[in-house]
Design goal:
By secondary structure, the protein is α/β, with parallel strands linked by helices. The protein has two domains: about 160 residues, no CATH class; about 180 residues, Rossmann fold (3-Layer(aba) Sandwich), CATH 3.40.50. The protein is built from twelve helices and seven strands. A seven-stranded mixed sheet has the order 1-2-3-7-4-6-5. Strand 1 and strand 2 form a beta hairpin. The longest helix is centred in the first third of the chain and has 66 residues. The relative contact order is 0.13. The model has no long low-confidence stretch (mean pLDDT about 85).
């Protein structure tokens, strides 16, 4: 019995010593271990980002190679793509009042300049291939830039041995990789030219026009079709004695277009006839929070145009046009709830089922918010990939 008691005493002593050593190790080296683990997680994410970037580059090369001249080598194609990925735009200063005009010029010139660079490298490129390459380049560039930022944080953290910095970067990896994965998904969507979640705006407006024309015995969706700006087309239809002017980008290529410029051109045309819209209705996809049902349709106030700086210009442009009128033109919005990944993925059944709901709300707004003989402006916002006027 005494031997067993001695054994237990020794075991407890060893166990106590072990825990003391463990606590000391955690106290002195715990942060180092956490930093090492965070760095390991960041390196794993970098490998994945690099894989997705290479996938995007290979997709672009497959489109370029058949339409490039025989004198262009595969290495030159790769160098051209890498140069395009590093093409950047510096935003104007945010402090001065004319920032909008500067930003509007820079962003419109950016698209024009990118197209010029691609055409210089591929003189014989057709419009459809140009749109596809531009869309693939934009998605791959986003992955490329995300990868550069993550790699930068990893190098800074390891060089300065700032384990808290590494832990902070690792804690942001979930959101960073969700965004990067969305652009990786977009590469497949742009390659296949299928309608994506973000096509809900153009597709809903298209279906609204198609349904109206069918009820009026018209089966040609291109009837009264007019190009208002680069990629944006309008159609005029009559709904319950209201004149509805519907604007949306034309697919099936990955076209978003400049909706702000199109609306401005339309306002100038109506002003010459002493006319103006009684209401502006925008239809677009909108961020879905976790816990919200995919494809939920909601109605609200405002100009709903999500996305980058170029979209903010369109939003500001349309809001300003409406507010300058006397009295100001009211604007309403109809949205379909989607996450970023769902917006760039091939359109799911849940999003497709939202189209009839959107059309019902459009009709309700027109009936309740306008009177007969008034003009209603409906804007289908989004990427028109896979959406053709048929």
């Amino acid at each position: 019995m005494s031997q067993f008691s001695d054994f237990l005493a020794q075991f407890n002593e060893i166990l106590t010593t072990f825990f003391i050593i463990l606590l000391l190790l955690v106290f002195f080296y715990g942060q180092n271990w956490q930093g090492w683990y965070a760095g390991r997680q960041i390196k794993k994410s970098l490998k994945r980002l690099n894989k997705w970037k290479k996938f995007g580059i290979n997709l672009i090369k497959k489109i370029i190679e058949p339409i490039s001249s025989e004198s262009i080598t595969p290495r030159e194609i790769t160098e051209f793509i890498n140069k395009m990925l590093d093409f950047f735009v510096i935003s104007p200063a945010q402090l001065d009042p004319p920032v909008y005009e500067k930003l509007r010029y820079i962003m419109s010139y950016r698209e024009e300049r990118l197209s010029q660079l691609i055409k210089q490298f591929l003189p014989n490129i057709d419009k459809s291939s140009l749109a596809t390459i531009s869309a693939l380049l934009n998605a791959t560039t986003e992955i490329h830039n995300i990868r550069k930022k993550v790699r930068h944080n990893l190098i800074i953290g390891e060089r300065t041995k700032s384990y808290l910095f590494l832990l902070s970067t690792a804690s942001d990896l979930t959101q960073i990789m969700i965004k990067a994965r969305a652009y990786r998904t977009a590469l497949d969507s742009f390659k296949e030219k299928l309608p994506i979640g973000d096509s809900i705006g153009p597709l809903s407006v298209n279906e609204f026009i198609k349904e109206n024309q069918k009820n009026n015995g018209v089966h040609n969706l291109e009837k009264n079709l007019k190009e208002r700006s680069n990629g944006i087309y309008s159609s005029e239809i009559a709904y319950e004695n209201r004149k509805c002017i519907c604007l949306r980008p034309k697919g099936p290529d990955a076209i978003v277009g400049n909706i702000g410029e199109a609306v401005e051109n339309l306002f100038l045309e109506l002003r010459e006839k002493n006319q103006k819209p009684s209401i502006v209705i925008t239809v677009d996809a909108m961020d879905r929070l976790e816990g919200e049902k995919l494809g939920t349709v909601a109605q609200g106030l405002g100009i709903v145009i999500g996305g980058d700086s170029n979209n903010l210009i369109d939003k500001y442009q349309i809001e300003t046009l409406c507010m300058k009128e006397t009295p100001p033109i009211p604007f309403e919005a109809v949205v379909c709830r989607e996450s970023l990944e769902e917006a760039v993925s091939p359109m799911s059944e849940a999003i497709m089922l939202a189209i009839p709901k959107i059309i019902r709300i459009l009709k309700k707004i027109i009936r309740s918010q306008t009177k007969p003989n008034e003009i209603v402006l409906i804007l289908g916002i989004g990427n028109a990939i896979g959406v053709s006027f048929e």
